Amino acid sequence: MSNNENLSINEKIDIGVKKGAAKARAEHKKAGRPIYIWEDGKVVEVPPEKIPVNKAELSDD
Questions:
Q1: Cβ-contact 61, 2 below 8 angstroms
Q2: Is the model's pLDDT at 1 over the cut of 60?
Q3: What distance separates the 2 farthest-apart alpha carbons in the chain?
């Protein structure tokens, strides 16, 4: 069993959203596709070589 059993539904949702975003970043980086983010009031392209991937966010701990 995981340590997520005692978390509120909001905390579980937050963890799921963060894992989903981390997975999407990792997949885009691996496939060589850019991602697009909102920065300083405009949309900015982030090339695959500059996409940050946090391995800890991908784990199921």
A1: yes
A2: no
A3: 42
